Amino acid sequence: MPIHDWPRVIPGIFHDFHHEWISTIKRALNSGLLPPDYYALAEQIAGGLGPDVLALESNRPRTPAANGNGSGSDAEPVSGGVALATAPPRVRFTSTVETEKYARKRKRIAVRHASDDRVVAMIELVSPGNKGSRYALRSFVEKALQLLDAGVHLLIVDLFPPGPRDPQGIHGAIWSEMIEEEFRLPADQPLTLASYAAADVTQAFVETAAVGGALPEMPLFLRPRFYVPVPLEATYQAAFEAVPKRWQEELGSPTDQGSR
Description:
This protein has about 260 residues and is of the alpha+beta class. It is built from six helices and ten strands, in the order H-E-E-E-E-H-E-H-E-H-E-E-E-E-H-H. The chain has helices spanning about 10-35, 100-105, 135-150, 170-180, 230-240, 245-250, and strands at about 40, 55, 80-85, 95-100, 120-125, 155-160, 190-195, 200-210, 220-225, 225-230. The strands form two sheets. It has a seven-stranded mixed β-sheet with strand order 1-2-5-6-7-8-4. A three-stranded antiparallel β-sheet has the order 3-10-9, with helices on one face. About 40% of the residues are buried.
């Protein structure tokens, strides 16, 4: 199913779809995509970056990690995960930045979950409200940077085109705070999907898309060198089936929307 032109409908319609997509992704992760020691929860936090889906590592005794995050050595394989060195994600753009170069720009923050289990990754599906004002966008970007600084891996999916506050998309807004090198969106693919592996050297794996195109599979990192693929296209299709028919018809075929 091609990506729909969501700005054509009122924000509440995407908000409804947003909730369904969150649940669908969570079910997919918990139905065998995540290794046995990990699980996903849907969670909303008011303001800024949600997150929408949390990936947590079970609170089981493990060998203390050399990197200090309590999850075992990064070189230790994740059962059921994909090794970055073996199968790098097939994305259009890959960038790296040394964390210490941008960590000094702001206060550090430790992100913890209310339970005893440790948050290792988050998935955020960007909503119109995240980019609805200068303050909202700044809050989103700052919280994304704080999470990366705390070692939490991120997958951010933005199906809304860039505006005056994020002319190079959500990844451009985040990356410009980390490194002076500018990211530029392709003119024909203005939608952004960005996966970040948080470590001393943070890596960004970025894919771009357009209305009418299919959603690519994106990596969700559990450790800096290991990830699981998230089936965005299949979960999008399943979630869209729950959109009321009246709004399915309004959105119609994305390939026809340019003439409406």
